[in-house]
UniProtKB/TrEMBL annotation:
A Pfam family of this chain: Ferritin-like
PANTHER family hit by this protein: MEMBRANE PROTEIN (PTHR34400:SF4), PTHR34400
Name this polypeptide is given: Ferritin-like protein
Superkingdom of source: Bacteria
Iminophenyl-pyruvate dimer synthase domain segment(s): 41-256
Length: 395
């Protein structure tokens, strides 16, 4: 049985033409060695990050004061995706791995192909719109799929869902813990705890054994698709927090412009009160924009390049935090504020291409992170340089 899904196929994505960026996917198998498990977990770290730029783009393109309920919902999901990244990093550190974030190969170009999926679904940087929400529903959709790859050799079936990928990681953790009593012998000092991380839902906790490892995977999977074919995430049961609906159903509320009622299920759809959404209250952008489309030296080119450097600084903070400097996460908050302000300034500017500007298209952040941006960002991070000067010029 499948859940009720507002998607009708890929007809809403026909404006995406050309090649799609890709993330490296592990082979379709259960990880059989500790080294393979580390590889799978590094892939999971990149997967969790993949969703953050599209979600931020939808949130940042909202016009000031508009769609506040939708803004809050998307913001909460972004924070939980960062929670997922941190839990994956804790799990990777627990099994003796080394999380890699500040690396050009960690990010893919956008539009990107949705990984661990049979359908070639483009994940693009879209303004707040029905098309953006359709993309988010593809990313978060529950599969309720227990069909795992076989053991002992290549499996020709291939990945069919993100849920299947995490179920496979879970099985690999269980198998390896049974064969390796010292599986969770990573340095305890590399673990990030709740004192180092703020989040809207769930909680960061150290991964030190099989139970905490399985709990981390449960939080990651069920905050996205819901618990046991319900609309709710596990936060009330695991952390004693207020009962909240999972990511897929948060996005369904926005898409359907209606809230879930107390007795609704994934199969009923939302039948509660109306949720006010105004799709016109967002800055339209080109989902295939690149910084090279903006004239060198122009305000929007300077801002787009600056945004990419500041985002690279965020990646550095995450990498340092995940590799023994957990207090670095506290510095991520002001960097996120820099990104928000830079993005909002970009989206308020018409696109410099006259034809696109005539169609109401605005400039946008492009999330293009190469070795150049990472090198510059590390130097600025070490020197304590921020974005205040540029914001003063653009304001």
């Amino acid at each position: 049985m499948t859940v009720r899904d507002p998607l009708t196929g890929l007809t809403g994505f026909t404006d995406i033409i050309g090649p799609l960026g890709t993330l490296a996917e592990p082979p379709f198998k259960i990880p059989e060695t500790v080294e393979e498990l580390r590889y799978f977990l590094q892939a999971a770290l990149a997967l969790e990050h993949l969703t953050i730029p599209p979600y931020l783009t939808a949130m940042y393109t909202l016009k000031p004061g508009a769609n506040q309920e939708a803004r809050y919902a998307i913001r909460a999901v972004v924070l939980e995706e960062m929670l997922h990244m941190t839990l994956v990093a804790n799990l990777l550190n627990a099994v003796g791995g080394q999380p890699v974030v500040a690396d050009p190969d960690f990010m893919t170009d956008y539009p990107a192909r949705l990984p661990y999926a049979k359908d070639p679904v483009p994940i693009a940087l879209r303004h707040f719109s029905r098309e953006a929400l359709r993309t988010f529903l593809w990313i978060e959709r529950p599969e309720y799929l227990a069909d795992l790859p076989g053991r002992g050799g290549p499996d020709p079936r291939g990945w069919s869902s993100i849920g299947q990928f995490y179920a496979t990681v879970r099985q690999g953790v269980i198998d390896l813990a049974g064969r390796h009593p010292d599986l969770f012998s990573g340095e305890a000092s590399r673990q990030i705890g709740p004192e180092d991380f703020y989040n809207s839902g769930g909680m960061v906790f150290p991964v030190t054994d099989l139970d905490s490892a399985l709990k981390a995977i449960e939080v990651i999977a069920e905050q996205g698709e819901g618990v046991a074919e319900t609309i709710y995430n596990p936060d009330d049961r695991l952390f004693g927090q207020t009962r909240e609906i999972a990511h897929y159903f948060r996005f369904t509320e926005i898409y359907e412009q209606r809230r879930y009622g107390p007795h609704d299920t994934p199969f009923s759809g939302p039948t509660g009160p109306a949720m006010p959404v105004c799709w016109a209250d967002a800055y339209p952008i080109d989902p295939t924009a690149t910084a090279e489309q903006y004239p060198p030296g122009s305000q929007v080119r300077v801002a787009a390049d600056r945004f990419n450097t500041v985002y690279a600084r965020l990646l550095w903070l995450l990498e340092l935090a995940y590799n023994g400097e957990p207090k670095r996460l506290q510095a991520a908050v002001p960097v996120m504020l820099e990104l928000r302000d830079l993005a909002e300034q970009l989206y308020r500017n018409p696109h410099p291409d006259p034809e696109k500007a005539a169609r109401g298209i605005h400039a946008s952040a492009t999330y293009e992170i190469t070795g150049v941006e990472l090198t510059r960002a590390k130097a600025e991070l070490d020197a304590g340089i921020g974005s205040a000067a540029l914001l003063a010029v653009l304001s």
